[in-house]
TrEMBL record:
This is DUF1772 domain-containing protein. The keyword Membrane applies. Keywords: Membrane, Transmembrane, Transmembrane helix. It comes from Stieleria marina. The chain crosses the membrane at residues 6-29, 50-74, 80-103, 124-145.
């Protein structure tokens, strides 16, 4: 597989995740506090199980292809920018593992307003980072097509 093909796969995964994270941030998480105490635990557990199926595979594709791009920099893209874009993927994963997953784990025992607020506020980290990454990958695509 050449750098251009890997770049296209990376761009598809990244932009899928950009759209998904904005939907989760603006719509989905904002509705968590409207579920109600009685059904919240089941709702949270179902959310976690179902969202993992639609976010997990693209995140794996994104991190694998981002790592491959560091080894074979796409034509027209500065190597430092490709490395920086990979660092953004790592930051997203760290935020997910260290902040959002623990919030979801706490919420799976019952709704807690402080944890809910932390989840919504901290998710802006991933929303902003994925948006920046999407713009970087868009730049890489344009630079690649121009080369």
């Amino acid at each position: 597989m050449n750098a251009s093909t890997i770049l296209v796969l990376n761009a598809i995964a990244t932009w899928y995740l950009v759209g998904l994270i904005w939907t989760v941030q603006i719509v989905h998480y904002k509705l968590f506090d409207r579920v109600g105490e009685a059904g919240f635990v089941r709702y949270e557990k179902d959310h976690t199980r179902l969202i993992t199926m639609i976010v997990g595979p693209p995140m794996l594709v994104e991190i694998i292809t981002a790592a491959l791009l560091m080894m074979m920099t796409p034509p027209g893209s500065p190597r430092w920018a490709v490395i920086a874009a990979f660092a953004i993927v790592l930051a997203i994963w760290l935020s997910t593992v260290l902040i959002q997953v623990p919030c979801h784990n706490r919420l799976s025992s019952g709704f807690d307003l402080a944890t809910y607020r932390r989840l919504v506020q901290s998710n802006w980290i991933r929303t902003i980072l994925w948006t920046i990454r999407g713009l970087a990958v868009g730049y890489f695509l344009i630079a690649s097509f121009r080369s």
